[in-house]
Specification:
This protein is mainly alpha-helical. The chain has one domain (44-93, 101-235). It has ten helices and no strands. The protein has helices at residues 2-12, 44-61, 80-85, 113-118, 137-147, 156-159, 176-182, 197-209, 220-237, 246-260. Helix 2 crosses helix 8. The longest helix has 18 residues, at 44-61.
């Protein structure tokens, strides 16, 4: 009799097994550990939309200075290829040089970001191990202007150097902090009011997307529109050269033949 009571007591003290959270355990699903998931990749349409929004900002606020062959730091923002090429300290026109300089014509003398890095150009977008858009030169230049806006009573002549033969300050991601300390008023757009919130967010979203690509590679209609825009722009500033890249010219021929068919 005593042995039976001891056995029953030991059975009653046995704890039930612990089950993982789930719909049949009485525990809320929220108690289950969260599983990290990567954000879904952007579709081609979404990537095009991000680039188009950023390109409109570049065309409205940036290409007035960064649209010519001898743009400051050779940073051309009138095309996707110009933005991804980045900038350099090399000057296009240097009257002090005694020997010919290596040409750096976009679409002609190098193709792709890696080839331009070999020619001394530094990135202004997230690249390599540096994938944070806010740490890129492009975005930090915009944020510098937002942190130090152009005030109505700013003396432009004393605050900025605007001479044609001025010394250019072409910083890269490694030295951007020193640039910000030395020239807090020299954010971008240079010597002009900063971007509005909507324009800034358009550029930031495109730079942070990680899948931004040339519009010449996404769909026939978008590719053709981009090539036509590039051709009309480059013809006005450099009429003696073939204004449109070969891949865009071939795409235009295919589109024209398809339309005639």
């Amino acid at each position: 009799m005593v042995a039976s009571l001891v056995a029953l007591a030991s059975c009653s003290s046995t704890r039930p097994p612990v089950l993982p959270p789930g719909p049949n355990t009485g525990m809320p699903l929220a108690a289950a550990p969260a599983i990290a998931r990567e954000p879904p990749a952007l579709s081609a349409e979404q990537a095009r939309a991000l680039w188009t929004a950023a390109q409109h900002v570049f065309e409205a606020r940036c290409v007035v200075c960064h649209g010519c062959y001898d743009a400051p730091c050779q940073l051309k923002l009138d095309t996707y290829e110009g933005v991804t090429r980045g900038g350099t300290t090399q000057r296009v026109y240097d009257p002090a040089r005694l020997i010919a300089a290596e040409p750096t014509q976009l679409f002609v003398d190098a193709h792709g970001a890696a080839a331009w890095r070999d020619k001394g150009f530094h990135p202004v977008l997230p690249e390599g191990v540096q994938q944070d858009a806010r740490a890129s030169v492009l975005v930090r230049m915009l944020e510098l202007k937002r942190a130090h806006p152009l005030l109505p009573d700013t003396d432009i002549a004393k605050t900025f150097t605007l001479e044609l033969d001025r010394d250019q300050t072409c910083t890269d991601a490694e030295h951007i902090a020193s640039y910000e300390q030395a020239h807090p008023s020299w954010g971008m757009p240079y010597a002009l009011p900063g971007l509005g919130d909507a324009s800034y967010q358009s550029v930031l979203r495109w730079a942070a997307s990680g899948t931004a690509d040339s519009p010449c590679r996404h769909g026939r209609s978008t590719r053709r529109a981009s090539c036509i825009r590039r051709r009309s722009w480059k013809t006005s500033v450099w009429p003696l050269r073939s204004p449109t890249p070969k891949r865009c010219r071939s795409s235009e021929r295919r589109s024209d033949s398809t339309a005639r068919a």
